[in-house]
Amino acid sequence: MNEEFEAVRIGELAGLDAARLDEMQFGVIGLSPDALVTVYNATESKNAGLRAQRVLGKHFFEEVAPCMNNFMVAQRFEDEEVLDDIVPYVLTLRMRPTPVRLRLLKAPDCATRFVLIERKAAH
Amino acid sequence: MNAVNPDTNDLESEYEALLSFMYLSPVGIIRSDQAGLVDMMNPLAAQLLMPLVKGGAIENVFDSLASVAPELRNLAASFEGERGAVCENHRVFVTPAKEGAVVLACSIIKVGENLLMTVLTDISRQVAAERRARQTESWLAGIYTSVNDFAFFSLDAQGRIESWNPSVERLTGFGETDVVGHTLSCFYARDEHVSHRSPEHIALTRDEGWHVEEFWCETRSGRRYWGQVLVAVLREEEGEITGYSVVLRDVTERKVSSDNLARLLTTDHLTGVSSRAHFFEVAESEVARAERHGRALSVVMLDADYFKRINDTAGHQAGDEVLKRIAGEAKGLLRTSDTVARLGGEEFILMLPSATAGEALVVAERLRVTVERARIETAVGQLKATISLGVATLSPANPTLQGLLAAADRALYEAKRAGRNCVRGEVLEPAGEACSACEEANTPGE
């Protein structure tokens, strides 16, 4: 399978175990249908400075990343049945403004929705 | 103490807890140097600024806000104290819409020699509430002044007029059969495209118990008047609202919205011309007025050429002098009924009521030449500057303020693309001797 940021498929992500997800070079966040965090890989944990144990089980848009609780991210998961889109975004990982690309993934046959986060340029 | 996490004694956990605290902060916080270069910011700050920047990079807080609040850079630069508040809850009007406007409050604190802390808060809801409160206030004030001309009647649960009395006919000219069973929209002026408004009055009244709004009305014989309507809940039966009372007044004389405008920051700090917020306030009513009287209305959008280069080579203060001069020359050329406003950054707009496209092109060309000839005195010596200008006129193709501004923006872009220091415009009529520089733009129907 192709594990590149732009290419990896939602079904493949859902099938990977935590160790394989941790090896990904980009942030992987998995959400249940009610937006509770079920997957939080090591890359994302390192970039955001938050340990998985602090984040898992929390409401992603309310308790973890309210900065994505808007029409560009949260609303799209609400509105769209099938979602595979890449959006440019600015995150403030550790309070440093960082241009990133978000890939939003949602499919009817997959219980987990994914937000993939790729930092545009390495510091 | 540490309800979130039981093992928060080590430094790493403390750090993580602080990060989480900042991630969840409901106000935007930015740390920058005096020039606005961002050092740290929290997610909400990024979320508030992101819609304002093209390309998504937020490197400088003043650059990011320049399109909507160009005065902030100047406020910070001209702050002379060692430390203290540069501005407190300064209002930034992000979108011009009268309803549903996005408004930010911006406070900047100078913490040290080259360190600014900026706090951004989304106050759109508060501003909307204030707007309603102002209407209420003006209503109450008005009630004591002229109560000669008012109509009183009632609505059923669906908002249809159910009672009529002579006061309705005295004010509106409509008889009982004209209005009973109709909604409030039967009083609206014909060109008020507000079919959604009547249900909105009712919805807002349901939520708040009463509601005041103003709009153009027309009497049966076609006389226009600025009407103020108060809708209040009249009856409730078993928790259900079953009727409303309405007072409709002719407040045309008070319509001169001076009190409304005086509350806004009407002037751009740096250049002394109208501020962006003031411009939109004026422009909306100018467009309405032009439509009402079938009069021409043109705008000229203009932009200083290579302004970034001026700033980079001569410094921000010299750049400011250039902006002041452009604004000054524009003011000098215009009539009192015209408006000059700074839209943001190095972008200005002239609004020319009653001016046709041809006349606006003449004004634009005259300003272009005046600026080109100006020798601008700055601390680093004499500078020259040029501007590019785009002209647009209210027409069936651009019937709204938004359409007009978009057309002017396109024309300005054309002028930039044509090599700058020139005028372009979408012209429907031959401009005659308007200006030689814009002949290419004079293709009819463009």
Structural class of chain B: alpha+beta
Count of helical segments of chain B?
14
Q: How many domain regions of chain B?
A: 3
Helix content of chain A: 25-40%
Strand/helix succession of chain B? HEEHHHEEEHEHHHEEEHHEHHEEHEEEHE
Q: Would you report the number of β strands of chain B?
A: 16
Number of strands of chain A: 5
Q: Characterize the largest beta sheet of chain B: strand count, sense, and whether it forms a barrel.
A: 5 strands, antiparallel
What's the mean pLDDT score of chain A? 90
Which strand order does the major sheet of chain A show?
2-1-5-4-3
What percent of residues of chain B adopt helix (DSSP H or I)? 25-40%
Kindly identify the CATH topology of chain A.
Answer: Beta-Lactamase
N-to-C CA distance of chain B: 69 Å
Strand order of the largest sheet of chain B: 2-1-5-4-3
Q: Ranges of chain A with pLDDT <50 over ≥5 residues?
A: none
Description:
- The complex is a heterodimer of chains A (123) and B (446).
- Chain A is α+β, with helices and mostly antiparallel strands and 123 residues long.
- Chain A has a single domain, classed as 2-Layer Sandwich (Beta-Lactamase).
- Chain A has 6 helices and 5 strands; from the N terminus they run ααββααααβββ.
- The longest helix of chain A has 7 residues.
- Chain B has a 5-stranded antiparallel beta sheet, with helices on both faces. In chain B, strands 11-12-10-15-16 form a 5-stranded mixed beta sheet, sandwiched between helices.
- Chain B has 446 residues and is α+β, with helices and mostly antiparallel strands.
- In chain B, 36% of the residues are buried.
- The longest helix of chain B has 22 residues.
- In chain B, a hairpin with a 2-residue loop joins β11 and β12.
- Chain B has 14 helices and 16 strands.
- Chain B has 3 domains: 114 residues, Beta-Lactamase, CATH 3.30.450; 104 residues, PAS domain (Beta-Lactamase, 2-Layer Sandwich), CATH 3.30.450.20; 184 residues, 2-Layer Sandwich (Alpha-Beta Plaits), CATH 3.30.70.
- The C terminus of chain B is likely disordered.
- In chain B, α11 crosses α12 and α12 crosses α13.
